[in-house]
Amino acid sequence: MEFRQISAAERTAAMFPLQSYAFLPSPWPEEDEAAYRRRMVFFRTAINFVAEEGGTALAGAAALRMRQNVRGKVHDMAGVASVASHPSARRRGLVRGVLERLLRQARDEGHTVSALYPFRPSFYARFGYVGIPRHRTATFAPEGLDHLVRAELAGEVERLPMTDGFDEWQQLQQRLLGERHGFAVYDETRAAEFRGDKWWMAVARAGGEVVGAVPYRVGSYGGELEAENLLSTGPLGRALLLQFFARHVDQVARVRVKLDADDVPELWGTDFAVTTEAKVDHPRRGGPMVRVLDMPALTGSEAGDGDVTIEIPDDTLTGGLWRLVGEGGRLTVTKGTATPEATLTIGGLSALLYGVLDPTEVVLRGLGTVDGAAEGPLSSLFPRHMPYLCADF
Ligand SMILES: CC(C)(COP(=O)(O)OP(=O)(O)OC[C@H]1O[C@@H](n2cnc3c(N)ncnc32)[C@H](O)[C@@H]1OP(=O)(O)O)[C@@H](O)C(=O)NCCC(=O)NCCS
Question: Is 3 in the pocket of ligand 1 (CB under 6 A)?
Answer without folding.
Answer: no
